[in-house]
């Protein structure tokens, strides 16, 4: 077994990482109880979902570290959960503005800047879109499609994997892994684009709610869970990460990614507790709030 093959430093490292995961879970549980007691019911579940992202990813990484054969399932579980969290973060920004109706009143004459990352940050010639009920619907659809289609694609991948037809290191055009990965990547970009468009509009209005640190934490989870893991897996597949018997290059890359995620998600869990636990004042009524520079002020 894995634990029997570990030397003393290896067992110490595994014990420390497991302890960090347990502490992250306890911190989240304590934070969830606080949110349940102190936060209005309209925002309660959304904020709990967002705060759960880091401890869930840490837990799945810890299980994958101790049970290597479960890595496929733990990675997919973390991916599904994170897809839901992206949609929840967009909904949280709308809720913090007072809800959809109040947001439309606040930005009655405003426009969304769609030339933002990760899809269109270089397309400065794109027009600014009026803020209407329809544009808000398309932004919500941009994140909701990811929360729906990623679990479907993950389920399809697991079915193909159990049948021996799906392998992450087989990226030939004839294999399903390449096409499923590209499709998931495109869905991810559209979801992150929708969140970026909304954040760019409300970041000044919600500055008093610390939306910038909250968005930064969300971005760190995106980069570490998606980009960092993908880069390490590519290095392992190309044998850039050397093998260390009894671990192959691919298995060693998986361990490195999981161990880094446990430490990083532990830190994000602790920081999230500080950021989300603060008491924030409610925003002023829409009639008293001016829009961000560059937009017309709305009339009472």
TrEMBL record:
Cellular localization per UniProt: Membrane
Topology of this chain in the membrane: Multi-pass membrane protein
This protein's source sits in the domain of life called Eukaryota
Q: Which SMART domains match?
A: Solute_trans_a
Q: Where are the transmembrane segments?
A: 12-34, 46-67, 73-91, 137-161, 176-195, 215-236, 256-276
Q: Does the keyword Transmembrane apply?
A: yes
Work out whether the entry's keyword set contains Membrane.
yes
| Pfam families xrefs | Solute_trans_a (PF03619)
- GO CC annotations? membrane
Write the record's keywords in alphabetical order, separated by commas.
Membrane, Transmembrane, Transmembrane helix
User: Cross-referenced PANTHER family, in alphabetical order?
Assistant: ORGANIC SOLUTE TRANSPORTER-RELATED
Can you name this protein? OSTA protein
Organism equals Sinosuthora webbiana
């Amino acid at each position: 077994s894995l634990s029997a093959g570990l030397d003393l430093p290896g067992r110490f490292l595994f014990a420390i990482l497991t302890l960090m995961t347990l502490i992250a879970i306890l911190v989240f549980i304590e934070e969830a109880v606080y949110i349940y007691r102190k936060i209005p019911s309209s925002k309660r579940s959304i904020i709990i979902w967002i705060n759960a992202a880091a401890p869930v990813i840490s837990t799945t990484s810890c299980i994958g570290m101790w049970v290597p054969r479960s890595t496929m399932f733990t990675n997919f579980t973390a991916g599904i959960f994170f897809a839901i969290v992206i949609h929840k973060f967009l909904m949280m920004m709308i809720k913090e503005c007072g809800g959809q109706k109040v947001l439309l009143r606040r930005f009655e004459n405003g426009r969304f800047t769609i030339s933002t990352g990760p899809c269109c940050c270089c397309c400065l010639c794109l027009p600014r879109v009026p803020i209407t009920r329809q544009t808000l619907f398309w932004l919500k659809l941009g994140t909701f499609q990811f929360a729906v289609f990623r679990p479907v694609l993950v389920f399809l991948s697991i079915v193909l994997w159990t049948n021996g037809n799906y392998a992450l290191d087989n990226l030939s055009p004839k294999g399903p892994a390449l096409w499923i990965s590209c499709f998931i990547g495109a869905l991810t970009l559209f979801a992150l684009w929708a969140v970026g468009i909304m954040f760019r509009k409300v970041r000044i209005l919600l500055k008093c709610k610390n939306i910038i640190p909250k968005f930064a934490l969300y971005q760190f989870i995106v980069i570490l869970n998606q980009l960092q893991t993908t880069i390490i897996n590519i290095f392992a597949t190309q044998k850039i990460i050397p093998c260390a018997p009894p671990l192959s290059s691919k298995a060693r890359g998986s361990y490195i990614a999981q161990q880094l995620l446990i430490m990083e998600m532990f830190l994000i869990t602790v920081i999230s507790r500080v950021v989300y636990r603060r008491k924030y004042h409610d925003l002023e009524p829409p009639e008293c709030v001016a829009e961000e520079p560059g937009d017309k002020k709305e009339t009472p």
